[in-house]
Design a protein that fits this description.
About 0% of the residues lie in helices and about 30% in strands. It is an all-beta fold.
């Protein structure tokens, strides 16, 4: 899976904070390789790069609840099935866009 959003690829700021944005409902793991570089240059045998360090990033799935939509207003006409002390009505299509959750 593609874990990161188009504008949320991992980056590390000068304070060492790793930032990234995952795509909605994506989960899985990936490795991020990090190399630090300073401005000292490599002239005369200098070394301006660190060793490569690898970070394993694991994004766990989130157990989100189911979702649905409802119509806000229903108009009932007289009729239906007579119960002991009430009129029973059935309305089809009250819930729609039902999802069990990602």
């Amino acid at each position: 899976p593609v874990l990161f959003s188009d504008t949320g690829y991992p980056s590390i700021d000068t304070n060492g904070t790793l930032r990234f944005t995952t795509r909605t409902n994506e989960f899985g793991s990936t490795n991020i390789s990090v190399v630090l570089m300073d401005d000292g240059g490599s002239v005369d045998g200098g070394n301006d790069r660190s060793f490569v360090r690898t970070i394993e990033l694991i994004v766990n799935p989130v157990n989100e609840g189911p979702t649905f939509a409802v119509e806000d207003v229903y108009t009932l006409k007289n009729g239906g099935t007579m119960g002991s002390d009430q009129m029973v009505h059935e309305i089809d299509g009250v819930l729609f866009d039902v999802s069990a959750g990602p």
